Amino acid sequence: MRKHLALVLMAAGLLTTVAAKDLEIYFIDTEGGQATLVVSPSGQSLLIDAGYAGYGGRDANRILTAAKAAHVKKIDYLLITHQHPDHVGGVPNLLQVLPVGVFVDKGPSVELDGKYPEEYAAAFAKGEHKLIKPGDTIPVKGLEVTVLVAAGQHIERKGEPNPFCEGLQPQEGEMGENPQSAGVLIQYGKFRFSDLGDITWNKELALLCPENRAGKVDLAITTHHGTTVSPKAIYAMAPRVIIENNGPRKGGNPDVWKVLEASPGLEDLWQLHFGLAGGKETNAPDTLIANLEEKCQGLYLKVTADANGSFTVYNPRNKYSKTYPAKVQ
User: Fold this and answer.
1) Within-domain flag for 217
2) Domain of 274: which CATH number?
């Protein structure tokens, strides 16, 4: 009887351990590009973009470092938000260090006569390749990954009226790949994270006005690396934390930083780099910046999220972490 009870308690302990596993997100420094590694509690992985090509495989090696920290040996899904070299260029280098299960994207480049970059096309030709559109899901086990924007379109669903839309107007001259970016909402229980790629003013406006179709989020990564100003319609998303995936000389625009920092309900704005375009007044406190020097170690920021909505951001440079408790409903 005692032996049976001990086995039951041991099994219960193992189940508790499994249930306690969290969502992990690694914001990888690609010097102003993007590579964001999402690791589900199930162990499946989603990599959003692969950074730049070249530089001795710099960005792929930084992705590999994060993957090793997360005990990831394979990228189950690789989402390429759009066909710019700071997002798709690093794919060939990535495949030299990690296998990819499924390549996911919004379609070919509008800047290349409707074709894909040659090296990326050659990469996915050897594997499984899927196109996505708004409303689709990416089946990462343990997560809800919903496509909000892709190929210039946005998800069609009801949302709360957005009071921050008042007075905002579309801008002229938006062309090219950035407005075509794919963007996703990732949900784990009550925790919600948005990554909208490099979508531009008009596409953000279309997604968020007059209704906020994205909904509120706990965590967001800046669109377009903090290079261009977003409409204040983004305030309706009410992120508690924003991660700016800037480089020392790319992104980190002081005007963008001021708009983001003023977001209602924002608790902290973390950065991958100290932005040289601005001074101390338009950069986060040093404790919240992964890389302070232009010639840096390329350190990532890590987020660990619980299904109850609480999450922790960790900076390996100074071993500083901050926990954001679950909101009382």
Assistant:
1) yes
2) 3.60.15.10
Residue 157 included in any domain: yes
Nearest to 223, CA basis, from 36, 97, 92, 57: 36
Strands 241-244 and 219-221: parallel
Q: What is the pLDDT of residues 237-266, one digit of tens each?
A: 999 999 999 999 999 899 999 999 999 999
**Pairing outcome for strands 36-39 and 289-291:** unpaired
Is residue 194 within 8 A of residue 148, CB to CB? The reply is yes
pLDDT at 33 over 60: yes
Mapped to the 3 state alphabet, what secondary structure does the chain carry? CHHHHHHHHHHHHHHHHHHCCCEEEEECCCCCCCCEEEECCCCCEEEECCCCCCHHHHHHHHHHHHHHHCCCCCEEEEEECCCCHHHHCCHHHHHCCCCEEEEEECCCECCCCCECCHHHHHHHCCCEEEECCCCCECCCCCCEEEEEEECCEECCCCCEECHHHCCCCCCCCCCCCHHHCCEEEEEECCEEEEECCCCCHHHHHHHHCCEECCCCCCEEECHHHHCCCCCHHHHHHCCCEEEECCCCCCCCCHHHHHHHHCCCCCCEEEEEECCCCCCHHHCCCHHHEEECCCCCCCCCEEEEECCCCCEEEEECCCCEEEEECCCCC
- Tell me how many domains the chain contains: 1
The domain in which residue 142 lies consists of 21-162+175-324
pTM above 0.85, yes or no: yes
**pLDDT value for 20:** 52
